[in-house]
Amino acid sequence: MTWRRRILIAALSTGVLGAGVAVGSNVWIAGEASGHTYAVADLPEAPLALVLGAGLTPNGRPTPFLADRLDLAKTLFDAGKVQVVLVSGDNRTHAYDEPTAMMDYLIAHGVPADKVVRDFAGRDTYDSCARAKRIFGVTQLTVVTQSYHLPRAVATCRALGLDANGVGDDRGATYAASTWTAGAQREKLAAIKAAWDVTSGRDPVLGQQESGVRDALAAP
C-alpha cells in the first residue's frame, strides 16, 4: 500500500468517525430534551428560571438576544411560572460583568431585586447548569434561552441530574436572521462539546456553596 493510499484511508476514517460523533451527539441531545421544551402557556411551574448569558454590547448592556432571554424570564415571572430568576454569565474580568448587567435589566423592567440571583461563573452552558446544582443547590428549574439553543441547554441540565424543562425565544429569527441562522448551525458542533462535557464530568469553576437561591425563594 502506498503512503498516499494510507493517508487517504486515514483521512476518510477520521472523517467518518467525526461525522459519527457529531450525529450521535445531536441524537443524544434530541432524545434527552424530548418532552421537556415548552411554549410559555404550556410550561409547568418551577421554582427557578435559569437565564444563560449571551454577551454584552460595548456599553455593557445585554445584547439583543440576551435581552430577549431576559424579557422571556420576566414573562415567566409575571405569569407565576417561576418564583426566582438565576442569571448566569461570564465575569472573568472587572470590565465584563454579564450577571450584573442581566440583573440590572430585569430590575429595570419590574422584577423585584430580591428575586434575582447572580451566578458570576456561568462561562458556558455546562458551567451554568453544573453550578446551578452544585453551588446554588437547585434541583428543579426552567432554562431560558433562544429556541435553537434550548435542546442542548435542557439536555445538559438534565444529564447533570436537574429536573429541567425549558422555553425558548424566537424573536431574533425575525430581526437578526443571519445571526440566528449562524447560531443554529453552530449548535450542530456545540453538541459534540456538550456530550464531551457531560461524559467527562469536568468541573466548572467552583467555590463555596451559595444561599442566594434559597434566600430568594424564602423572601415574601
Automatic annotation (TrEMBL):
Residues 49-164 form the DUF218 domain. InterPro entries: Cell_Envelope_Assoc (IPR051599), DUF218 (IPR003848). It comes from the Bacteria. CDD domains: YdcF-like. This is ElyC/SanA/YdcF family protein. It comes from Nostocoides vanveenii.
